[in-house]
Amino acid sequence: MGAMIPYVTETPDIRIPPNLLPADGRFGAGPSKVRPEAVAALSAASGSFLGTSHRQKTVKSVVGSLRAGLTSLFSLPDGYEVVLGNGGTTCFWDAATFGLIEHKSQHLSFGEFSSKFATAAATAPHLGDPEVISSEVGTHPLPVAREDVDLYALTHNETSTGVMMPILRPGGAPLPADGGGLVAVDATSGAGGLQVDPAEFDAYYFAPQKCFGSDGGLWVALLSPAAVDRIGSIAATGRWVPASMDLTIALDNARLEQTYNTPALATIFLFDNQVQWFNDNGGLGFSTGRSDRSAEILYSWADNSDFATPFVHREQDRSHVIGTIDFDDSIDAAVVAKVLRANGVVDTEPYRKLGRNQLRIAMFPGIDPEDIASLCACITHVVGALAQ
Of the N and C termini of the chain, which has fewer Cβ atoms inside 10 Å? Predict the structure, then answer.
């Protein structure tokens, strides 16, 4: 692999040739790249939209457009509902401990974020101890059907490690209507960039700062009729729920095309604009196709490199929206990231708690696959310059 390159703290003065640089240098895992076209549309509408009441038609029509757009994008069957709330995915985990889990949940834990819902359920005093099925980072476990589990908590894409998993109801588990447990899927970094079948979930929830090219602070949940019924049945027991985390209140407000408390209007506008862009160009096939192409470019480059390799060994588990690439010990990936940042190519640093010598690269639909190819060329150039 060549001579060991000393780890340094200062950023080497390496200039990447302009012809190698991507057209847009944003590759962060979230907040993600916001398309300039969406920002321009928000600017054009700002005089009549920003700073107006979220209880009036101006904003409610955008919320309605967003809900309808998501229904179309995910081909939701009749009876499924799109619900919104403030606070992001972290708040939805708490809301789910009040409004979706009756007694016991099962959680798949294979990274930083997939473990957090399990922690929320374990600390909820009104719930039984959850079952947690774990696997090593870089892999994912599988759910196991249990008679005493009333909610299975899956994660479509583990943002910290770059592992994706197929969303399927646990083997042998009946549909909720037949007495089985609900399937709730954390899709924060996967929704819009990975294919999913609504028949396989009851709650598919996410935030818009990843594939949907908006800002954070909002959660969205696609709920099946069984999930809606569960929310109602738990509410009927009289379980105490803080109003801001009450899914019955969120559901009632969503049906009025609004959120319970004031949302960030720019976030909703940018979110809706991205959904319209997806749908206008072919829907989920279009958006996932862009991520698929970016993943093909990134992993092919790493597979053919003499200094980089995909962190996730099994090809079918390698995320198509978050790529994690390990570097040979002779190369300090942190220095590579610093040089990239100094040249306007930003947010390629690894997830801090994973502690690996790697880069983490977003491949969300809003990122042009050609920019992924340019990024690969930039990394190769920087590594070559560091070795001189």
Answer: C
Instruction: Answer yes or no: are the C-beta atoms of 69 and 279 closer than 8 Å.
Output: yes
Burial class (CB in 10 A: 0-12, 13-18, 19+), 212: buried
Could you give the angle at which helices 88-99 and 225-236 cross, rounded to 10 degrees?
A: 60
Instruction: For the chain, give every residue range classified as CATH 3.90.1150.10.
Output: 18-34+282-386
Q: What is the pLDDT of residues 230-248, one digit of tens each?
A: 999 999 999 999 999 999 9
Which spans in the chain are helix H?
36-49, 57-73, 88-99, 114-123, 225-236, 247-254, 265-280, 284-303, 333-342, 369-386
Question: Domain 18-34+282-386 adopts which CATH fold?
Answer: Aspartate Aminotransferase, domain 1 (3.90.1150)
Is the pTM here over 0.85, yes or no?
yes
Under 8 Å between Cβ of 126 and 280? no
Question: Which residues lie across from 50 on neighbouring strands?
Answer: none
Closest CA to 3 of 304, 308, 328: 328
- Ramachandran bin of 217, using left for φ above 0, alpha for ψ from -120 to 50, beta for the remaining angles: left
The residues of the chain that CATH labels 3.40.640.10 are: 52-280
Is the pLDDT at 261 greater than 90? The verdict is: yes
- Which H, E and C letters describe 73-107, residue by residue? HCCCCCCCEEEEEECHHHHHHHHHHHHCCCCCEEE
- 10: exposed, middle or buried (Cβ count in 10 Å: 0-12, 13-18, 19+): exposed
* Cis bond before residue 36 (omega within 30° of 0): no
pLDDT in tens, 333-366: 999 999 999 999 999 999 988 999 999 999 999 9
Q: Is 3.40.640.10 the CATH classification of the domain at 52-280?
A: yes
User: What distances in angstroms separate CA 311 from CA 261, 293, 357, 359, 379, one per listed residue?
Assistant: 41, 19, 10, 10, 16
Residue 186 and residue 153 in contact, taking contact as beta carbons nearer than 8 Å: yes
pLDDT tens readout for residues 161-170: 999 999 999 9
